[in-house]
Design a protein that fits this description.
Blueprint lengths: L14 H19 L11 E6 L5 H12 L3 E6 L11 H11 L2 E5 L3 H11 L3 E3 L7 H15 L6 E5 L5 H13 L2 E5 L8 H14 L3 E4 L2 H5 L4 E4 L11 H8 L6 H5 L7 E4 L10 H10 L8 H5 L5 H20 L9
Parallel strand pairs: 1-2, 1-3, 3-4, 5-6, 5-8, 6-7, 8-9
The structure holds phosphoric acid mono(formamide)ester (CP) and norvaline (NVA).
């Protein structure tokens, strides 16, 4: 049963439910490509709350809402009272009385949970410091679309192993039956708590979870190599210290070869520092002489890289999440 539910974190959903959302993503992608209307949310109003910046998530929610016949309204952190002059509870009650669904991107997972608790409408987590669940539906759909299956594959995430994307990948892969490795220096590995959550699922799904700082062992045999930025939004840290910790974990030709496979694909949730064509990229090049960070330009643009398909799939997957939870769809036998 999906109707009226929020999508706040992956562990709120069963394997069957997550697989349904992944499957619906493919269906809606086909409808879009064939220009077949799918206005399951006609007449609905969707609030898009953003405490942090976004390109993909904001664009995906906007286009998906329009395709579904709904009206999206962007409410940025400087546009509304939330956090400054009004509590989450009060904001949630007001938004819930006017909007039919709420997207939230921000810092604290607790704010997303409270919005859902007090608004009475579905809340979709567009990224918090802890989880990035809508990203997962797109990512595992992209993997399924490419390999034709999920179970039995091995995903190696390399880089900052305790950010939102790493947490979500570890737990979601374990739920879905994908072997998962987090390859990161000890100080940037997932917390015990996140590892324990994932381990319970992994035992149930009969998959292997490895958290290691051993790059060779971590990437050997991986079907999917995944990375993310080395410094996440809202982190106030010394960029240089992070670079020193993570430079050996950069996805480049040498690291790719360590998979021992040529058919391995590369994923990145984006945005990525793969050249100096950004303000930060240019600053880092000037300060430290580094022109590429978590992934080289060559790897980013290689035929193994599916990052732009993955990015497009954010739209189809977010559409699936909104349609399933707000569109009164007939969904048999999914518990
Ligand atoms: N991957 C992702 O969430 O991208 P944005 O930050 O651009 O939304
Ligand atoms: N870990 C990154 C993901 C961006 C989509 C961040 O939180 O900034």
């Amino acid at each position: 049963m999906f109707q009226g539910r929020s999508f706040l974190k992956e562990i709120d959903f069963t394997k069957k439910e997550l697989n349904y959302l992944i499957g619906l993503t493919g269906h809606l992608k086909q409808l879009k490509k064939q220009n077949i209307p799918h206005e399951y949310l006609k007449g609905k109003n969707i609030a898009l709350l953003f405490e942090k910046t976004s390109t993909r998530t904001r664009a995906a929610f906007t286009v998906a809402a329009n395709d579904l016949g709904a009206h999206p309204e962007f409410l940025g952190k400087d546009d509304i009272q939330l956090g400054h002059k009004e509590s989450t509870e009060d904001t949630a009650k007001i938004l819930g009385s006017m909007f039919d669904g709420i997207e939230f991107r921000g810092f604290k997972q607790a704010v997303a949970e409270d919005l859902a608790k007090y608004s009475g409408v579905p809340v979709w987590n567009g990224l918090t410091d802890r989880w990035h669940p809508t990203q997962m539906i797109a990512d595992f759909y992209t993997i399924l679309e490419h390999f034709g299956k999920l179970e039995g594959l091995t995903l190696a995430y390399i880089g900052d192993g305790r950010n939102n994307v790493a947490n979500s990948l570890l737990v979601t892969a374990a739920i879905l039956g994908v072997n998962v490795r987090i390859v990161a220096p000890k100080k940037l590995q997932p917390t015990e708590e996140i590892q324990e959550i994932a381990t319970v699922y992994a035992i149930n799904s009969n998959v292997e979870i490895i958290v290691t700082d051993d790059i060779e062992a971590g990437v050997l045999g991986a079907d999917v190599l995944y990375t993310d930025v080395w410094v996440s939004m809202g982190e106030e840290i010394d960029f240089k210290a992070r670079i020193d910790d993570l430079l050996p974990y950069q996805i480049n030709a040498e690291l790719f070869a360590k998979t021992g496979k040529s058919e391995t694909i590369i994923l990145h949730c984006l945005p990525a520092f793969h050249d100096t064509k950004t303000k930060t990229g240019a600053q880092i090049a000037e300060l430290y002489g580094l022109t590429e960070l978590e992934i080289t330009d060559e790897a980013f643009r290689s035929t193994s890289s599916l990052v732009f398909t993955q990015g497009e799939n954010r739209m189809h997957s977010i559409k699936a999440i909104m349609a399933a939870t707000l569109g009164n769809l007939y969904i048999p036998n999914v518990e």
